[in-house]
Each structure stands twice: as structure tokens, then as C-alpha cells.
Amino acid sequence: MSRRRFALEPLSVPEVSSSALVDLASQAGFDFFSMFAYSPTPKLQADAAISDPDVRRAMQLRMDETGVGLLNLECFNLTPEEDPRNFAAALECGGALGATHATAIVYENGDRSDALAKYRRLCDMAAEHGIRVNLEFFAMCKAIPDLDTAAGFVKEASRANGGIVMDLLHIVRTSGGMAGLRAFSSEMIGTVQISDGPLDRSGVDLEAETVERGMPGTGDFPIRQFCEWLPPDVVIGLEVPQMSKFGRTSPLDRARRMMEGIRTVLA
User: How far apart are the C-alpha atoms of 129 and 168, rounded to whole Å?
Assistant: First the structure.
């Protein structure tokens, strides 16, 4: 069996720019990193590489020297106000750096036809750069709150490069964990994100949990079973933001703990 490959997700170390993330991922043993290429909220700004050619060239140089690749572009929020033409620079930069995936969310858009039209347009634009666009679902999102809804949306969009973000946290919280995956087609798997936490959601603040997650192996999520269910060539992203640790522990320390945790769970 081929060795599993891992990606460092930017939400895990949001205080680190994408240029520095390349070296951080390399030092912690990751094969890939992902980057904030488009700003979904004012708190999560797009990386300087999108608009600054010098930063982009420096990032490419570090990627060439370390062998760490760019996996995924976060995060295209298909709001009612969003004009898909604004996505062009992020997709062009991501394509030039070798990204193969991008994440879309439908967080504040209750108009399904508008969201579908923008998702289709995003997929068409991304296809020009060889990028697959994966839709993310989560409990706080009224429009796309679970796996079944996400799958129906992507199927209706009918784009060959459409897929779904399989975040284990959101699978556990909204779709019944592994039981909810039995009838799911693996062909729709785009990117994968893993963290850990308690299975019992009683008393869990779902919104707070998105920025305070457990390292692999410190909770009850079925990480090993989930990874065994995944096709062997799917890259496993580690998305473990721990806001309480920002400024108290180094990003490199947290990144190394993520890798140590997942390797221990899968050993």
C-alpha cells in the first residue's frame, strides 16, 4: 500500500503566511500545504502571494527547494453579493503554483439557484487551471448543513470537477459519523480534513469547536476507520485550529504534534 500523504491546513496555523507555511510544513513532515487564496471573511485574508508576484516567486522557490506542494485554495464563499469574476486572480495564482483543489462554501446564501450558478461558474473557471472545486458542509450553514445536502448540490451542479470537502468534524457532528458514509460514492471525495474531539455533542458549542479542535488521538472521532475508508491516494489534511494556544505555543510545535498524532493513530 502506498504511503499516506498529509497536508497542513492554514486554519491550523493562521498566524503564519503561506510563504512561511511552506517551510513549516516541510519541517513538520508534511507533503503539502493549503493556503488562503480568497478571503471568505474579513478575519481570514487572502495571502499576499495572490497580488504580489515577488511573494509568489519566493513561495515557488521554497516549494521547489523543499518538495512541499500546494494542495488546496481556501475559501470561496458564494454569497449573494459575490461576483465570480473576482475569483480569477486567486485561481490563476493557485494554478501557477500547482494547486489541484479549491474549497467553496455556501454560508450566507439562501438562494439555491444563485448559489448553484456561482458554483458552476467557479468550477468552469477553476477547470481552466486543472483545479477541482469541493463544496464544504457544516452544521452552522443553513444552506448546506450536511453531507446529503452537499452531495445533492454538487450533483445538481453537474460539473466534472465538482466534489465535496470531507471534514471529519462535520461528518461526526452532522452526518452520523462512519454510518453516514456507507452509501456515499468515493468518487465525490475532494479534499479531506481531520481533527479530533468527543463523539457526544451534548454541551458542545459547534461554532466554538471550529476554532478549538483536538489533536489526532486526543478524542473519540473514528479517525483510523475514516482513513481506512478513504481511497489510498487521497491526501489527508490536518485542520486543527487551537485558538487558546495562539501566542503560547509555536506554530511549528503545533504542526509537529499534528503529524505525531495522526501517525500514532494510523500506525
Answer: 28
Going residue by residue through the chain, which has 267 residues, state the pLDDT in tens, using 9 for 90 and above: 468 999 999 999 988 887 889 999 999 999 999 999 998 777 788 999 999 999 999 999 999 999 999 999 999 999 999 999 999 999 999 999 999 999 999 988 999 999 999 999 999 999 999 999 999 999 888 899 999 999 999 999 999 999 999 999 999 998 778 887 877 888 999 999 999 999 887 777 888 888 899 999 999 999 999 999 999 999 999 999 998 888 889 999 999 999 999 999 999
C-alpha distances (whole Å) from 164 to each of 39, 69, 151 are: 20, 21, 7
Domain that holds residue 178: 6-266
Domain count along the chain: 1
| pTM tops 0.85, yes or no | yes
